Structure prediction request, 132 residues.
Amino acid sequence: MNKTIVVTASILGMFSIILGAFGAHALKELIPFESQQTFETGVRYQMYHALLLLFIGSTNLVQQKTKKIIYYLVVVGLIFFSGSIYGLATNELSMFNFKSIGFITPIGGLSLIFAWIFLFIDFIKNSSKKQI
Prediction:
């Protein structure tokens, strides 16, 4: 599982850079400034969570069961949160109306929050067993 987590982290990080550059350069003339800022929020959260997964996959401080839970929460959370933000920010460039699925954005955000909660709980449980 650790290898899957760090490989996913590296792919998410790589795409954060690609999407960030795309948003800063290619989208600059195509969407309003507010939409560019919205797009950048999706990129930023994607990178934050790529780094979280990189940590999770390379540490022994988190139990394997918790790593798996966090992994799935982050992947689903990023698809829903960042993915929907990318769609909403570029809505006027698409034939699909991403506003119709905008309700998944907070579901994705909640999934990301739960990933951090599980990490916190695992740290608290393990701190009583061993010194971090």
About this structure: The helical segments are 2-26, 33-58, 64-89, 104-129. The radius of gyration is 16 Å. The chain has four helices and no strands. The chain has a mean pLDDT of 92.
